Amino acid sequence: MSVAKQKLCHLLLDEVFGSRVAKVGRHLAKWEKCFLADLYQLDQPHECLGVLINHGLVTYGRDPRPTPGVQYEISLDQVIQTIRYPRYLYLIKALHGDNAELILEEVLRRGQETLPKIMEKSLNRIELDENLAKTHKQDLEKTFQTLVKEHFLQRAPHVGTNPEVPGSTVPILDETTRFHVPESIESCSSIYWCLNVDRFHVEFRNKILVSTVTRRIDETAGKLMEFILSLSGKKLEASSRHISITEIYANINKCIDLKLRQYKDHYLKVLEEDRTRFIDRVGDEGGGTYVVNFKHIFTVLGSAVVENVVQEKFNSKALRIFRVVRDKLYVEESQIQKLVMIPARETKLMTYQLLENNFIQVQELRKSLSANVVAKSFYLFHVDLNQVARMVQEMCYMSLSNAIIRKNHELQINARLLEKQDRIDSITSNINASEEFVSEEERTQQLEEVQDMLSPAEHDLVKQIRRCGDKLHSSLAQVDETLLVLELFLKL
Amino acid sequence: MSRGRGRGTGLSFNAELLGVGRGQEAIPASLLTPPPLYPARLAPPCPLVEGPESDYLLAVRKEFLHQMKSSGFQLGGHPRSQNTQPPGAPTSALKVERYSDRYQTPEDIPLQLDWSRFPAELRPENRRRRIKRRPMPTLTQAKKPNLVSRGDVTQTLDELEKKEKSGDKSEDETDKKEGSDGEDEDKPKLPGAIEDSEGELEDEEMDDGTDYANNYFDNGEEYGDEDDDNLDEGGIY
């Protein structure tokens, strides 16, 4: 657990759940595992822990021996995933429509919730909001069942005792009923539902792969990849199950894309022979069996991310050096200079800049073991992609923290101005809603008066601050996209 | 210059022999300052991706944060609402009722959680209250029975002491007897009755003339509990 990650989590918790929860979160992150007694010095730790457990950010466990109490542990990855909530909603909206979005939004806000409550809240929102299409309760329930069936939602774990270890306190999640919705709604009132994050990540992974194929080859190939991925299972694994060609063909024949139906063999061959190896042929039985090697594909994607970072941080010449070192695995400095075709001095400078920033590593090979013999050793440059990816991940954490800090700072120094603007907005909406005014003229006059509470310069400033805040919010989302690729690379 | 002693020249070897030349490729001067906090960028940053997707993500994120703020899950003040006043502003300004206050949503929504789903120690009914310890026997308590039989002066002193005791006692019984406290106060206090109850107390504790059998062991669990409500961060070592 790095310092940058802890800091980011503190900022995120502060943003979403407020300062008290953030303090508890920071304490938990610092000590990895805590007893409740360790948290007594903080303000109302029970409530904060309740909130965190409720949103699935803290897990707990107690063995009767050797620990005397329940230990709480925060999952920093889960905390960072709170940035991804809008992305979950976007995905579910694209896959299952507005109703699904509404349901998921309720679940995300509440952390975990029972079906009747979700229905009640969603229907309330539909009634209040004019922009939302009117739907029946039955439709909502059907959508909910689809979401559970598709494993996007699951039952939330509750406190219990591990039957094998008497006296323990652990969160219990029954695997057999994890994705099961009871027939009657009445019996649902005590079952809480929460998000199944892994399922979303599977969708994200598939989406990334499809867009990669689409960009590398063409749209039809992307569609084929989509079919193959739909057969590859709903779990995050390093490699998919064996998929036979007949299964793929059966899927292709269902679609209406004539181009794909006509050239399906060609497209499969192209996917297979691409240098990224989108699919691997593992056997010839039944016309051919394929697997999707996610580990390999995400290694390629992860290195592409790292290469982009090198290019943006330094320049394209540095990128060339980086690629040569990566390609040749272990190279000497003089070899690099020959291979990259850049003036020697510049090459040297770039190489050492990369080394200084830990993008490439140096391995020393001694000819003799005695230390005082000079020039009897080789220095080989190499790239440890895992380590570099982790470093870039850290950089992402730092930039996310910086963006949040900057946003908070902007809001804080301009707090008075923004408050004034909020007040004007609320008064304006009130004037628009009220029916006291006899004529429209009077109303517009009043509105103008209210607007004049801020000078034109201040109006501009407010606009500028808001634009700045929006930009920082967007940048959070986009850094998170990078983070997602790296995470999948490191996790698989 | 005497050879071999290393006098005069700072180095005992020739730097040029090691392949470190003069001019451009010389060893750079050692850095004595930390690297800059905000290093200059070589190239301008890439622009953000814009489009319907990022607009949607932005809108949803802002909406989500806004909803969380008024959901009851947000505990403790948010930095913005906390620091709306610049440091120099008078604090009394906060107390003036504003016109816009009427249009603000109340922010203190109670936290609603199904506590039965969480570990027992977190549930509100199980939260540990400050435990009042029983008063320790004092020297005056132990000697009292002898004092009663003395003359007038001691008797009046005794009366006073009893009054003091009864005052102390009602303070001590806070948790359990809160309901019955009111009744006690309504009744006229009979000196005899109080004496009786005190006698019982002494009997229990002082049966053998010592208090060795009593358990005054403090396992330290309550230590530091006194002010867990309003301790800011810091002081955790």
From TrEMBL, chain A:
Q: Which UniProt keywords apply?
A: DNA-directed RNA polymerase, Nucleus, Transcription
Task of the protein: DNA-dependent RNA polymerase catalyzes the transcription of DNA into RNA using the four ribonucleoside triphosphates as substrates. Specific core component of RNA polymerase III which synthesizes small RNAs, such as 5S rRNA and tRNAs.
Q: Where is the RNA polymerase III Rpc82 C -terminal domain?
A: 189-301
Q: Which GO terms describe its molecular function?
A: single-stranded DNA binding
- Organism name: Tigriopus californicus
Q: Which family does it belong to?
A: Belongs to the eukaryotic RPC3/POLR3C RNA polymerase subunit family.
Q: Which InterPro entries match?
A: POLR3C_WHD, RNA_pol_III_Rpc82_C, RPC3, WH-like_DNA-bd_sf
Subunit structure, as described in the record:
Component of the RNA polymerase III (Pol III) complex consisting of 17 subunits.
Query: Where does this one sit in the cell?
Result: Nucleus
The record's Gene Ontology biological-process terms are: DNA-templated transcription
In terms of superkingdom, the source organism counts as Eukaryota
Q: What is this protein called?
A: DNA-directed RNA polymerase III subunit RPC3
Which PANTHER family would you find in this protein's record?
A: DNA-DIRECTED RNA POLYMERASE III SUBUNIT RPC3, RNA POLYMERASE III DNA DIRECTED -RELATED
Which residue numbers delimit the DNA-directed RNA polymerase III subunit RPC3 winged-helix domain?
Answer: 306-383
TrEMBL record, chain B:
The UniProt entry, under InterPro entries, shows: RNA_pol_III_Rpc31
Bias-annotated ranges (Basic residues): 126-135
Source organism's superkingdom? Eukaryota
Q: Does the keyword Nucleus apply?
A: yes
Where is it located? Nucleus
User: How far does the signal peptide extend, from start to end residue?
Assistant: none
Here the segments flagged for biased composition (Basic and acidic residues) are 159-180
Q: Name one GO biological process term.
A: transcription by RNA polymerase III
**Which residues lie in Acidic residues bias regions?**
195-210, 219-237
Pfam families associated with the record:
RNA_pol_3_Rpc31
A Gene Ontology term for the protein's cellular component: RNA polymerase III complex
> Region Disordered: start and end of each range?
71-100, 126-237
Q: Which UniProt keywords apply?
A: Nucleus
State the family it belongs to: Belongs to the eukaryotic RPC7 RNA polymerase subunit family.
Protein name per its UniProtKB record:
DNA-directed RNA polymerase III subunit
